[in-house]
Amino acid sequence: MDLGAAVSMGTGVPSISGYAQGSLGYRLRGGSTPEETYWDLEVGSEPLRHFMLRVRYDGLSSRGRLLDVPPGGTPTPGLGGQDHHRIAPTVALGIGEGMELSLAWRHVVDGRSTLRSTEWEAAVSFLGPLRTQPQSAP
Length: 138
What we know:
The protein is an all-beta fold. 0% of the residues lie in helices and 61% in strands. The chain has no helices and seven strands. The chain has a seven-stranded antiparallel sheet, with no helix packed on it.
């Protein structure tokens, strides 16, 4: 069993129709997997109506022994920890009430005992309320 907790902060930045947020957390891991500190920073803006830009930078740092992975080798999950730093720029398009289409490029920029990888992510997200607020009677 794992147990984790994080502290998050954020603010709106009206001058660029944007926001900035960050979090820092710690995860107690069960079994042989070492405990981890994790964090992220994200900024975003809506430079044009329904068009959004975001950049996220996140990291993970294991508190246990890291296994050496030879060049070209593959880390083995559960046998030691991993450290990584990733960046993920994203473009998103609002497509209706509380919905968006997004495309993100996520890249591991640094790390130990982790796969150096690049991922593309296409998503449809629901961001709006699950139900409308009732109207008050006149």
